[in-house]
Design goal:
By secondary structure, this protein is of the alpha+beta class. It has helices spanning about 20-25, 30-40, 45-50, 105-120, 135-140; strands spanning about 10-15, 65-70, 75-80, 85-95, 125-130, 145-155, 160-170. A seven-stranded mixed beta sheet has the order 1-2-3-4-5-7-6, with helices on both faces. A hairpin with a 5-residue loop joins strand 6 and strand 7 (about 160-170).
């Protein structure tokens, strides 16, 4: 499978090393997001770090780092088969500020839910900062439910509360 997501009005493909600079430039469009998430602006190596970020005991075969419109519109970081064989984990959905508020995030999440279901998966899980109510509203609209609240340590040792959410992607739930 060349890509795990397809939207007719956007080019979505796997990121390569050649995309690192474009992803970094995308991240630098919204330093406030990184301040909220990590207590610091994006590191100069933020995109490179994302390229290799993977849960323990998984190989890069499970990682799907996708760029939307050559990273001008957004980036998604997805790990399949984590934390279990039928659950996928959304590590990041980051849209350019100009792309937000137009329904693209919901379309991406709904398309991803269908892809997961079509490949035999049952759930999509993510974490969201409690400091990010806009993202939380998107996830609520897309059918995600609270699993737990956790304290997460950022790369710079700052602590942040996050909510772990999960969406059932089985046939009856995937068309929210």
């Amino acid at each position: 499978m060349t890509t795990i997501l397809e939207l007719s009005d956007h080019d979505i493909r796997r990121a390569t090393d050649a995309d690192v600079a474009a992803i970094q430039a995308l991240f630098e469009l919204d330093p406030a997001y990184f301040e909220m998430k990590n207590g610091a602006p994006p590191r100069p190596t933020e995109a490179r770090q994302l390229m290799g970020l993977l849960p323990p005991d998984l190989t890069l075969d499970h990682k799907h780092l996708l760029v939307i419109d050559d990273a001008r519109t957004g980036v998604l970081d997805i790990v399949d088969s984590y934390p279990d064989a039928t659950t996928w984990f959304l590590g990041a959905i980051f849209l350019a500020p100009a792309a937000r508020g137009h329904g693209l995030g919901k379309r991406l999440l709904d398309t991803l839910a269908r892809t997961i279901r079509d490949t035999g998966g049952t759930a999509l899980r993510l974490i969201v900062s409690v400091q990010n109510p806009r993202a939380r509203r998107l996830y609520d609209r897309c059918g995600f439910r609270m699993i737990s609240r956790l304290t997460q340590t950022s790369w710079n040792d700052s602590l942040h509360e996050v909510d772990m959410l999960e969406r059932d992607v089985t046939a009856s739930q995937a068309e929210t």
